[in-house]
Design goal:
- The chain is mainly β and 111 residues long.
- The protein folds into two domains: 1-32, no CATH class; 33-100, Roll (SH3 type barrels).
- The chain has strands spanning 2-7, 10-15, 34-40, 44-48, 57-62, 66-73, 76-81, 84-89, 93-100.
- The strands form three sheets. Strands 8-7-6-3-9 form a five-stranded antiparallel β-sheet, with no helix packed on it.
Length: 111
């Protein structure tokens, strides 16, 4: 009954009791089961601050590295890079299959 989310570049969890999918009147009863991961195919790929080569490089990723893509903007993928939003060219990454998302949140403490 929890959704795993990306909030300000960090992973968090929210109760499905208080979340509603856009365009529906009832909250979904199960979270998404899978997400696609991507693998870097270039030897070194710049991570940029925006979707284009005119944006500054904020770092790089290397061949074989797995990326979790948040969205696509034209020919650029939006990723979480060291807690920051970054963009990589879709020409140098490829879908590498699916991974199953956890269905339960990590243990919590109650006060």
């Amino acid at each position: 009954s929890w959704y795993k989310i990306n909030y300000n570049g960090r992973t968090g969890y929210v109760s499905s009791d208080y979340v509603q999918a856009s365009g529906t009147t009832t909250a979904p009863t199960t979270p998404p089961a899978e997400s696609t991961t991507y693998t870097v195919t270039a030897s070194t790929l710049n991570v940029r601050s925006g979707a284009g080569t005119n944006y500054a490089s904020i770092g790089s990723v290397t061949k074989g590295q797995k990326l979790s893509v948040m969205s696509k903007s034209g020919s650029w993928y939006k990723i979480n890079y060291n807690g920051r939003t970054g963009y990589v060219s879709s020409d140098y990454v490829q879908a590498s299959g699916t991974t199953t998302a956890p269905t339960t949140p990590p243990a919590e403490s109650t006060t």
